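This section describes the prediction task in plain terms. A model, or a person checking by hand, is given the sequence of a single protein chain and must write out its three-dimensional structure as a string of tokens. No templates, partner chains or ligands are provided. The sample shown here is typical of the held-out split.
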Amino acid sequence: MTVREVQEILAAWAPPAIAWEEDNPGLQCGDPAAPVRRILVTLDVTSGTVAEARRRRCDMIVSHHPLLFTPLRSVTPSRPEGRILRELIARNIALYSAHTNLDFTRGGTSFALAEALDLTEIRFLETTSANQKKIVTFVPAAHADAVAAAMAASGAGRIGDYDHCSFRVEGTGTFLGNERSNPTVGRAGRIERAGEIRLEMIVPAWNVGAVVRAMRTAHPYEEVAYDVYPLENPNPAYGMGVIGTLKRPSRLIPFLRRLKRTLGTGALRWTGDPARSIRSAALCGGSGGRLLEAAVRARAEVFVTADIRYHTFHDAAGRIALVDAGHFETEAPVIGAVVRRLEIECRRSGKSVDVLPAAHSTNPVQYL
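The expected answer:
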């Protein structure tokens, strides 16, 4: 397997295009054509991470937090990023990061946290919108299935847990080819009428180019008529935070004890009624305080996230139990999710690649 193939696996799951604009996901350093035999998966990239990758003979590191988050003015040993980057390049270790795009995808950071807490009926707390398009084309009925299949293979027609979704309606197309044309139906120089299928498929905005190319290749016409429409409806594949259900209701204090034990955090910051029964829990791995109102609207009894501001605790009072369980701790479960995804996709492609979760903790926070 190559670095590029690992990139493609991760980008298909967590497209870089869904990340926040200020983010910097993707290949941080390395040759896309370089071979990969062993991958180390970590939350952060530190000197300890690189030392572990060297010790375990890894060709590539996949991290959640990007090493290069803001533009560098220089790469020198005077800065930690410069020292790490120099070491990665010197040792031929590629680095790929999936940050907020991994937070916003199904099965990503918040889903991994929910699974670690053994929640059921897990779904997005908020879905994102305005990142989908609809492609409409007009094709003879005999070729509609082939064109739709080509579009689906390039990423069109995916709605939630369903693939190859399309809508088709019969109609009549008209055209007049000039002397340079070579129409598939009829003759140049006269108005023709042809029975056609109006074929509609939804597509992520970042896949429009690939889907249009596949459609044009499979389409029988010399000149392909098609339209691309922007959509504002929510996308069920991507969102922020999750909400799920506990298998058994619990009082708040026993829930907090279990949360602390499961995540291995040194302390929890929380507010709420200790006697309150918890059945529905909202979660957001990492800094998710902005989702408090969404958690309240979803009627969750508790909201677990990290980096909560003092005034946000005041905002939650009397409405929902609010828990700050630590940034590292709420995101660490995604390491296992990334390992499993890479293992499954590598096996599916018939490639022999070892995928290892980092043993070295990169949590900079200590508890006393």
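For orientation: The chain has twelve helices and 15 strands.
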